[in-house]
Specification:
- The structure is a single chain.
- Helix 1 runs antiparallel to helix 3, helix 3 runs parallel beside helix 7 and helix 4 runs antiparallel to helix 5.
- This protein has one domain.
- It contains 7 helices and no strands.
- The chain has about 200 residues and is mostly helical.
């Protein structure tokens, strides 16, 4: 049975990285509501995001503590796949960072700083599409679609309507935090399975 096999170290490390990234992004997105919805609403949403991020980090730490039990045995095919996926991940992440910085600078230069947050959400959402192909995870496609829709809806609303800017940006931040939080919960579920397998291996 799968539960009786040692946990591959590459898989364990990937889940740890995913948990840490989602902890950072969920906290950051939720904290954006402090500037757009000052008062109780922003404080509560930020607190929920921080708690979720803390949960992801604690889970990652628990997983790291079992790393010595993980298997380092990989087949040549698995080794090649790990190298290719690692390189592809780095390229996609770098392109995402460049696009985020470029969007922020351009929108600020044309005096539309209100569009920065939804533009970033759109870029982050779109970057999940190649991630789905790289890591062969269907959930990445769903999250890519959800977050891209949040960012695009925010941009169109701000460009085409007279809606309150802070309200729109707050909603975008909430939608993005919910998306990354969902991804973090997905990684937490994977981590729970790996922790169970590690416990059986002791």
């Amino acid at each position: 049975m799968l539960e009786d096999r040692p946990v591959p170290r590459g898989l364990l490390d990937g889940v740890v990285v995913g948990l840490v990234l989602m902890a950072v992004f969920t906290t950051a997105w939720s904290a954006n509501t402090l500037g757009t919805w000052p008062g109780a609403a922003g404080t509560v949403i930020t607190a929920v995001g921080v708690l979720a991020g803390a949960w992801f980090v604690v889970t990652a730490v628990r997983l790291v503590r079992t790393r010595r039990l993980a298997s380092t045995v990989v087949t040549p095919e698995q080794e090649r796949w790990q190298k290719r996926s690692g390189t592809a991940f780095g390229v996609v992440f770098a392109v995402e960072a460049v696009l985020v910085v470029a969007a922020a600078n351009v929108l600020s230069a044309i005096d539309r700083p209100d569009l920065v947050l939804p533009a970033i959400a759109l870029v982050v959402g779109l970057h999940f599409y190649p991630m789905a192909r790289i890591f062969r995870r269907r959930i990445d496609t769903w999250l890519a679609t959800a977050l891209s829709a949040v960012g695009l809806a925010g941009l169109l609303t701000l460009l085409l309507t007279g809606a309150d800017r802070d309200t729109v940006r707050g909603l975008v931040a909430c939608g993005a935090a919910l998306t990354t939080g969902t991804y973090g919960a997905y990684f937490t579920r994977l981590a729970s399975g790996l922790l169970s397998r590690s416990a059986l291996a002791r």
